Amino acid sequence: MPLAGQVVGNGVRLVRPVGRGSHSLVYFAVARDGQPCAVKIFPAHLGGYAEREYDHAHDLHHPRLVRVIERTVVDDQPALVSTLARGEVLFRRYAQRPAVQQERRAFLLTLVHLLDALGYLHERGLVHRDIKPENIIVEEDGSAKLVDFDLSGPAFETFDAPLRMGTAAFQSPEAARGEPLGPESDLYGVGVLLGWGIHGSLPDPDEPHPHTLDPLQPLYLSLTRPDHAERPNDAARVRAELLRLAGLPY
Length: 250
What we know:
nucleotide-binding, serine/threonine-protein kinase, Phosphorylase Kinase, domain 1, Serine/threonine protein kinase, ATP binding, 32% helix
């Protein structure tokens, strides 16, 4: 049965698919009151991810985060209804590269908003664990929201066995080793994005980025140090340093 047109939850009508999360299909939808929203549908065997995301995200209220509104079911599959993040995923929004050269103010505003979101999460004892372009939705002026909390959880959470979380290109070394993760691991992902914005490409272990005189380069290097103990772990301080180095008043 086609999903488009179905009414689920508290009168939410599915309209069309708009993307995929780490473990889900995301639909644009319209609530009973006519407001646009999103419905994130998980395969039945991944219902644990839906429960985890709801448990950790349903009481988050911040302008730079989507808000998870309710749990529901779509064709016997677990689903979550959330507010809608408008815009495009980060890499698609900044198609002209390097973004720091092409759209410096907009790109840095995106990072400021990402750091605002992470600061709020970290203050609540949570880490996102999957900072990547697909999870950052950016509007035309650079305003951004962080989405997709199905890997999120308490800082330094331990599991029965090492669990490698995140997406390889943006994964901190400790995440790649399956170690417990703190705020500095999320900020490593911010550093990778900052380096991409400066250089126009992701880091390659066999071919380091060339030297640049951009004043943001030292912050990029600091955020991506291999040893997590040597990295910044305070999103608010990283935000302040980003603005200081960039000479911007956000």
